[in-house]
Amino acid sequence: MSRAQGMVMVLELDAPLPQGHALWKSLEDCGWWSQQVEASWATLVRVPLPQALSADELRAWQLPGVRRVFQQRDSFVLAGRAWQAFDTVLEAKGHRLGGGELQLIAGPCSVESRQQMLETAMAVAEAGAGWLRGGAYKPRTSPYQFQGLGDKGLDFLREAADAAGLAVISEVLDVRDLPRMRERCDVIQVGSRNAQNLPLLKELGRCGLPVLLKRGFGCTVEETVLAAEYVMSHGNPQVALCERGIRSFETATRFTFDVNALPWLKGHCHLPVVADPSHATGQAALVPAVAMAAVAAGADALMLEVHPSPSRSASDAEQALTLEAFARVAGRARALSLHLRQDAL
Ligand code: PEP
Ligand code: MN
Hints:
- By secondary structure, the chain is of the alpha/beta class.
- It has two domains: 6-72, 2-Layer Sandwich (Alpha-Beta Plaits), CATH 3.30.70.1140; 90-344, Aldolase class I (TIM Barrel).
- The chain has helices spanning 17-29, 55-61, 114-126, 151-164, 178-184, 198-204, 221-233, 261-268, 277-281, 287-296, 323-344; strands at 3-11, 44-46, 66-74, 90-92, 95-97, 103-107, 131-133, 167-172, 187-190, 211-214, 239-243, 273-275, 301-305.
- The protein has an eight-stranded parallel beta barrel with strand order 6-7-8-9-10-11-12-13, surrounded by seven helices.
- Phosphoenolpyruvate is lined by residues 109, 135, 139, 171, 191-193, 214, 244, 279.
C-alpha cells in the first residue's frame, strides 16, 4: 500500500482565475506537482509531492482562494474520508444506496424476457428490494454463450422496474451504449472485467448518472478505489463500490469473497459499499451465509442474483436464488442489519 502522498489543497471554484494561476505558479516554483480535477461539481485540487511543509503551516499562510488544506493519507483523494467525512448516498426513484439502512439490489444475471422481468420485479419489491438489476449487455467468457438482449433488454428492465416502483442498475460494456442506457437506467454498473478500463471510467465521469463499480477479480482494494477516482476526477462524485469476490487458489467456489474489503473500504472511503455474494460464491446454497457475513461486516447493500426458475437462467444458473429464497435472505439480512444498528446506538 502506498501512503502519504502529501498535501491536498482545495481551491474555491469561483476563485478568480488570475489569482488561482498566480498561486499555482508560485507553488510550482516551489517544486510542487499539481493536478486539476475536471470536476465541475467540486473545487479544484492540487496534489503536491511530499515535502517539508505541514498542512498546519500551509493553513497558516491563509492563501487567497484556498478553501481547505489537508493531509492525504492514502494514494486516493476524492474517495477518501479526509476529503469527505460523511457517507455519500446515491439516490434514484426514491431509493437510496448507502447512508445507514441496508439496501437490496436483486434481479437476474441476464434480462431474458418481459415476463421474467415483470415477475422478478414484483417479487423482489414485495420482499423489500429497492433496486432491480439485470444485464442487457452481457460480458460472457465465451463468445458462443448468450450475449444478452441488448437494447430490448433495457426496455424490459425499465418497464418492470417502473411497474414495481424500483430503480434500475445495469452493466455497460461499451461507451457507445451509454446514450441509450442513460434513458433507461438509474445507475450504470461497471463489471469486474472492466474495473480498470480507464477510457470507460473516464467517460462515466461525464455520463451524469451514478456508477456502481465492481471490484476487478484481480484487483486490490486500493486499485478498486483508484478506479473510482478515475470516475470522480472526471466529474462524477456519485460512485458506489462493490465487492464481488476475487481470484485465489481456491477452486471449491467460483471466486473468494473478500470480507476484509468491506470494513477496510468503509473505514477509508465515504462511498457506499455493496456486497455481491452471488458472483463471489457461484452457488445458490452458499449465498445466504455469505450475504449475512457481508451485512455483519458493514455492507451498505447486497446485490443478489434472482430468477423465477433458476435452472432455466440463460447465464449464471447455479448461483441464482429462487424468488422464495430471496425473500428469506432479504428478511434475515434486514433483521440482522437492524439489530446491528440498534446495538451501535
Ligand atoms: C453481473 O453482475 O452480472 C456480472 C457480470 O458481475 P461481475 O462483473 O462481478 O462478474
Ligand atoms: Mn451474473
